Amino acid sequence: MSSESGRNFGLGVGNKCVTLAVPNARWQEAYALEAAAIRKALGDIALDIQHIGSTSIPSIKAKPIIDIAVGLRRLDDGLACIKPMEAIGYCYAGTDLVPDDHIFGRDIEGQTRTHLVHVVELGGANWNHFILFREKLRANPDIAEAYEALKIGLAAQYADNRAAYTASKKDFIGKVLANDSPV
């Protein structure tokens, strides 16, 4: 997807900034187009591709960044994804930010993030967390609303610090994953 297309889907947040947008029905279409491009670039190395993150939850505000999980047979296969992902406009951020996760980002003009791809082991802990959290939010409107409320508060508190915003959501996410409902 070109950077212009990212804008057409209402995507983009300045680097390190936190801005939430109302749900946009076109985010699913943006995901589908991007998943097809990733599938074409990675071929059979990508065993599964899923829309994750808040833009995959139709009822809540989200940073307008499409989060995608790509499941591989082995985490080490992620290194083989670097050149094909770069060829379709992604920058490789490595595995230092999140253990067992090859991170790729797509930006408009190097300043505005539109897509974030997590390349992980299919069926591994990260994959399972991404999918389970998404499914719990989709199935439980009360939890989704509580998560949205938390995100709104954190976005106001950490408008210029995306790392702190993300870190501050971990307890809530952990409780949801552990079936210890925060609401």
Q: What's the count of strands? A: 6
- Strand fraction equals 15-25%
The helical percent reads 40-55%
- Overall mean pLDDT stands at 93
Straight-line N-to-C gap: 38 Å
Rg over CA atoms, rounded to whole Å, is 16 Å
**Parts with pLDDT < 50 across at least 5 consecutive residues:** none
How many alpha or pi helices? 7
Shape: globular
Largest beta-sheet details:
6 strands, mixed
Helix and strand element order: HEHEEHEEEHHHH
Q: How would you classify the helix and strand content by structural class?
A: alpha+beta
Notes on the structure:
- With 183 residues, the protein is α+β, with helices and mostly antiparallel strands.
- 42% of the residues lie in helices and 19% in strands.
- The chain contains seven helices and six strands; from the N terminus they run αβαββαβββαααα.
- Strands 1, 2, 3, 4, 5 and 6 form a six-stranded mixed β-sheet that branches.
- Strand 5 and strand 6 form a beta hairpin.
- The protein is globular, with a radius of gyration of 16 Å.
- The mean pLDDT is 93.
